[in-house]
Amino acid sequence: MNRGAGAQRLSRRRWLATGAALPLAALPGLAQAGSQLEEPLADAVRAALSAAIRNAAPPIPEFNDTESRLRYLRWLGAMGDRLYRRIPDRRERLELLQTIWYECRRAGLEVSLVLGLIQVESNFRRFAISSAGARGLMQVMPFWTRVIGDGDPARLFHMQTNLRFGCQILRHYLDRERGDLFMALGRYNGSRGRAPYPNAVFANQRHYVFDDRAPAGLAG
């Protein structure tokens, strides 16, 4: 076995055992997150994040055809079953999944990836706060509200705002890294170039993969 690869796997196991699981279980009000860096934003990213501040209602998906809608409903049912224990309230669970699905397509991200990221970052706790001050489901740093909105970090506890911020920030980092998802995830967590965080997201992503070959057709 390559010593470097073995050390990396051992480091990942230690991170999963101590850096993610223990604080989430032992400190209900806190979550684990890195430190996203404040940096200039593309105009498209700035516009998308600004829209999240203004729009308080959850998005309603629209479809071009019946099969696309049926595929979405199959996905919604499958993910609802997988999140039942974490989010017992049916209405909250469906609203969350509907918003994640919409925002991922808006940002051009894999839904399973964002679900895996949320599990690592907050374990699906809407009001989670990390020791670094990151907030909400996708653990967004408060400086983003100063850069984009009115500077009120409490807005990051609003589900749609947090998910749109998180998805657009990840999209921004992915563009900055020229499509390198490993590096983009590291940048999102403030651990660029280090393996534990991307590996943890990828591991959790597998739980949310939906195997359905029907074509998707989101309008707009």
Describe this structure in words.
This protein is mainly alpha-helical and 220 residues long. 57% of the residues lie in helices and 2% in strands. The chain has a two-stranded parallel sheet with strand order 1-2. Helix 4 (90-107) runs parallel beside helix 7 and helix 7 (159-176) crosses helix 8.
Please give a quick description of this structure.
With 220 residues, the chain is mainly alpha-helical. Helices cover 57% and strands 2% of the residues.
Write the layout of secondary structure elements.
Layout: H1 3-26, E1 30-31, H2 43-54, H3 66-82, H4 90-107, H5 111-121, E2 129-130, H6 143-148, H7 159-176, H8 181-189, H9 196-205
Parallel strand pairs: 1-2
Low-confidence stretches: 1-32, 214-220
Q: Quick one: overall form? A: globular
Average pLDDT reading:
78
* Helical/strand content category: mainly alpha
**How would you write the strand order of the largest sheet?**
1-2
Q: Give the N-terminus to C-terminus distance in angstroms.
A: 50 Å
Name the beta content range: under 5%
Largest sheet: 2 strands, parallel
**Share of helical residues:** 55-70%
The total strand number stands at 2
Radius of gyration: 17 Å
Order of helices and strands: HEHHHHEHHHH
Number of H/I helices? 9
In terms of quaternary structure, what is this?
single chain
